[in-house]
Specification:
The chain is an alpha/beta fold and 278 residues long. Helix content is 39%, strand content 17%.
Length: 278
């Protein structure tokens, strides 16, 4: 929802008013994000600073869901985390052990790396989130740990890119794909479009698929997530994908691409309040 409600630290025009208005109409609203750099508490503080009226329980993140996934598995080893302190904090909140997150830059040659590489014992999971300091040593360590078939391989999400006000940046999916390629293993993906991401909320009745609208800016994550969950979908073009992309999906013979076609389209979330108030 980051590119639906805000872009970096600026709210998108009309998004705050629309979100709060929907809640005033007694709609249950959730912020569902593949952001793997912040805790739910961090995101709540950011949202509230922009004027959004939201509680921590309304924020569903890949950081928290990754920690809950490991807790459900009764994970009791150490995790090697490629990511940020936000991801580490959610693990710590549930008393899950992990190695310290460090920058681990490449120093010297591959021979130097080979001779000096230190691998820790009792590592039972490699967790990959967004990491702006992703490096060859981190890739090598992940590969080595995953040589153990019992070591879990978890990705918070597989978004391949993300916009900033000036440029597009590589996303978590780029790091995940690199590790998948060398380890010849596929990651268990926690976030969108995996329907498991939201299943606890469906199970306890907080979210009812037949009366739920998924609003997002990406076909391969948001719209596909809505499809996988049985939600209605609304696409807004304030993020990565565009209306031209929707037209390509509509014209495609590929049934997987056609799953990304939204039920509704608006240029931005703020336009919704105008339509509903007509």
């Amino acid at each position: 929802m980051a590119r639906v409600l805000w872009l970096n630290d600026e709210p998108i025009k009309g998004s705050v008013e629309t979100f709060n208005w929907l809640q005033d109409q007694h709609k249950n609203c959730y912020i569902v994000t593949n952001n793997s750099t912040r805790t739910r508490e961090n995101l709540k503080e950011k949202a509230c600073s922009m004027g959004l009226e939201v509680a921590e329980q309304q924020i569903i993140t890949t950081t928290y869901s990754t920690a809950k996934y490991l807790e459900k598995l009764k994970f009791n080893k150490q995790a090697y985390v490629i990511g940020t302190q936000g991801l580490a904090q959610e693990l710590q909140n549930l008393k899950l052990k992990h190695l310290a997150i460090e920058r681990e830059p490449m120093i010297g040659s591959t021979k130097d790396l080979r001779d000096n590489l230190k691998l820790e014992q009792d590592v039972g999971a490699v967790i990959v989130g967004f990491d702006e300091f992703f490096s060859f040593p981190k890739l090598t360590k992940a590969f080595c740990y995953l040589n153990d078939p019992q070591c879990l391989f978890i990705a918070t999400n597989t978004d391949d890119q993300g916009p900033t006000p000036t440029i597009m940046l590589p996303g978590t999916g780029c790091f995940v794909k690199a590790i998948e390629t060398c380890s010849k293993r596929l990651a268990t993906v926690i976030g969108k479009p995996n329907a498991e991401f939201i299943k606890p909320f469906i199970k306890n009745g907080c979210i009812k698929p037949l009366t739920t609208l998924m609003i997002g800016d990406r076909g391969s994550t948001d719209m596909l997530f809505g499809y996988n969950c049985g939600f209605y979908t609304l696409f807004v073009s304030t993020g990565v994908d565009t209306l031209a992309d929707i037209k390509q999906w509509q014209a495609a013979d590929n049934c997987e691409l056609r799953k990304q076609i939204p039920d509704f389209y608006l240029p931005k979330l703020g336009d919704l309040i105008e339509i509903l108030n007509e």
